[in-house]
Design brief:
Order of helices and strands: EEEHHEHHEH
Largest sheet: 3 strands, antiparallel
CATH class of the largest domain: Mainly Alpha
CATH architecture of the largest domain: Orthogonal Bundle
CATH topology of the largest domain: Arc Repressor Mutant, subunit A
CATH superfamily of the largest domain: Winged helix-like DNA-binding domain superfamily/Winged helix DNA-binding domain
Strand content: 5-15%
Shape: globular
Distance between the termini: 40 Å
Strand order of the largest sheet: 1-2-3
Radius of gyration: 16 Å
Structural class: alpha+beta
Number of strands: 5
Length: 186
């Protein structure tokens, strides 16, 4: 048994998106038009979703990337997350919708994970959220591209395009104005 993969072509800098789908829901995202060779081994042991659910995920991701969908309505499998990471990612997933952004510090406060941090050390919560965003196995579905620095975009580890991928996704959602070289949906 293994997770099924929903694969979607996408314009550069994304190139494509592949989503591992288990019986519980979307479990992992790779910015690649094909499933990654080095996928988390836990996905190999996961009960598969079946062709119908994988096709639903592929269709909704394609609609999102084409600018025709603002929210995903398929379930999420949180099995590759745990502890504070899961809490922060679930807070992001639940509270920051399409076309909105939140700063690392705001997400740290909203999640409650860093409530015990001394007031003069609040930067530690923002830094912790940044590390969690970098380890997000569900990028795009749990929209870490919507988490920005207090003074700019911040970093992004999704896809080989890095911050270019984040910029593309935020432009798609209308957060950033398109530049002359924008290659997304019209």
């Amino acid at each position: 048994m293994a997770a099924d993969w929903a694969c979607v072509e996408a314009p550069e800098p994304l190139g494509g998106v592949s989503v591992a789908v288990t019986a519980a829901g979307a479990a992992a995202v790779s910015f690649s038009p094909r499933p990654p060779d080095g996928a988390d081994p836990r996905l190999a042991a996961a009960p598969p979703a079946g062709e119908e659910r994988a096709a639903l995920v592929a269709r909704q991701v394609a609609e999102y990337l084409a600018g025709r969908r603002r929210a995903f309505d398929f379930p999420v499998d949180w099995g590759l997350t745990a502890g504070p990471q899961r809490t922060v990612l679930q807070t992001l997933h639940r509270t920051v919708g399409y076309g909105r952004t939140v700063t690392y510090g705001e997400l740290a406060a909203a999640s409650g994970v860093y409530d015990d941090v001394a007031p003069g050390e609040r930067w530690a919560g923002a830094r912790g959220v940044g590390q969690i965003m970098g380890s997000n196995p569900l990028a795009l579905i749990v929209p870490c591209h919507r988490v920005v620095a207090a003074d700019g975009l911040g970093g992004y580890g999704g896809g080989y395009g890095g911050v270019g991928t984040k910029r593309w996704l935020l432009t798609l959602e209308g957060v950033l104005a398109p530049t002359l070289d924008w290659n997304g949906p019209g």
